[in-house]
Amino acid sequence: MKIFIDSGNLRDIESLVPLGIIDGVTTNPSLLAKEKEDPKAIIKKICRLVQGPVSAEVVATDAPGMVSEGRELAKIDEHVVVKVPFTREGLKAIKTLSDEGIRVNVTLIFSAPQALFAAKVGAAYVSPFVGRLDDISSDGLTLVRQIVEIFDQFDFGTEVLAASMRGPLHILEAARMGAHVATCPPAVIEACLKHPLTDIGLKKFLEDWEKAQAAKV
Ligand code: G3P
Fold first, then answer.
1. What is the pLDDT of residues 178-211, one digit of tens each?
2. Which of 129, 179, 172 is nearest to 151 (CA)?
3. Quick check: 6 and 165 in contact, CB under 8 A?
4. Ligand 1 midpoint to CA 164 (Å)
């Protein structure tokens, strides 16, 4: 499973890329609004850092507006994937952009039929929002499972990008279900790096080693 960073923060991305586990980045208007720099400049810098798919979202809500914004975003860098929300207008824009060879990540997916329709019009990725469904007492991971099941039966070529990941268990379950990608906030990736038994075990190994060296002197 590919791991994307869900962030527009260059420092966070710079600190995680050297780990070698990062395949791409997703941003959204809320994430980029937190940053001071011009959004297009940030996207360009992220593309240079990651050298993999970087989702940049349109903010127009009508199909012609989404298409022209999507074309502009795609010009920023060859790694840009245009993020389009799943709406009636969004569907038209996804088809136009995909037919032009621009990769589209369809965002704000909250039902399996939405994912199916997005795949039918050529989406490169669909992004079911796991955490936001959990927030309203719905099971976000069940949605991921349903979409993976549907895509396994057809040849859409659309990848399931599990989004709104709130903790390591979301990543674990998305991987077990066969989601192609999980996009994770930096804090969730950091949480997966730590285990208390690893820390305790390493401390003991080093103490034993030091004791043995001291005894040899
Ligand atoms: O970027 C899309 C998605 O991952 C947002 O997550 O945590 O704001 O629900 P969240």
1. 999 999 999 999 999 999 999 999 999 999 999 9
2. 179
3. yes
4. 4
pLDDT over threshold 90, residue 6: yes
One-letter identity of residue 39: P
Q: What is the DSSP string of 140-205?
A: HHHHHHHHHHHHHTS---PEEEEBS--SHHHHHHHHHHT-SEEEE-HHHHHHHH--HHHHHHHHHH
CA 187 to chain centre: 14
Instruction: State if residue 4 touches ligand 1 by the CB under 6 angstroms criterion.
Output: no
Active-site option among 34, 36, 83, 211 = 83
pLDDT beyond 90 at 217: no
pLDDT digits (tens, 9 = 90+) for 83-98: 999 999 999 999 999 9
Residue 122 per-residue DSSP state = T
- How many angstroms separate the alpha carbon of residue 126 from the centre of ligand 1? 13
Cα 74-18-172 angle, rounded to 5 deg: 85
26 closest CA partner among 182, 147, 176:
182
| 68 pLDDT tier (thresholds 50, 70, 90) | very high
